[in-house]
Amino acid sequence: MSQRIPQKPKRRRLDYRQDPCRDVFTCRVCGWPVGPQAAGTQHRNHCPNCLASVHLDDEPGDRAADCGGTMEPVAVWVRKGGEWAIIHRCKICGVLHSNRVAADDNPMLLMSLAVKPLAAPPFPLDRLERAAE
After folding, report:
1. What is the pLDDT of residue 16?
2. Do the Cβ atoms of 74 and 87 come closer than 8 Å?
3. 127: part of which helix (H) or strand (E)?
4. Where do the structural domains in the chain lie, given as residue ranges?
5. What phi and psi values does residue 114 have, to the nearest 5 degrees?
6. pTM, two decimal places
7. Residues 6 or more apart from 32 whose CB is under 8 A from it?
8. What SS3 state is found at 110?
9. Which segments of the chain have a pLDDT < 70?
């Protein structure tokens, strides 16, 4: 007679593609407590203090990524309509993701990301002087 072993119930994978994310978490980079309350969005996915994120999604909100690496902010870009977004790069697998800027994001860090290419251009600055002559 075989004995039946009870199976663990399958854990439902979270999915925030349609539903708001009300999770509160502690930033793994700077330790800041992060919640959705002041973000101006119902889909908080990065720290407003240091702008770091975690590689959780393959597609926005699906929570299907197995990587779990720290996503560092590397740039900003302007979406159609003028909305800013942060480009994050995973420190483990290198994937790039774009995330909307939230209302409570650190404005100094956002501006430092925006001017980063101007502060370190891919050519010597004296080339600009020669081109202006």
Report:
1. 47
2. yes
3. helix 126-132
4. 25-117
5. -65, -35
6. 0.73
7. 26, 47, 48, 49, 50
8. helix
9. 1-23, 36-43
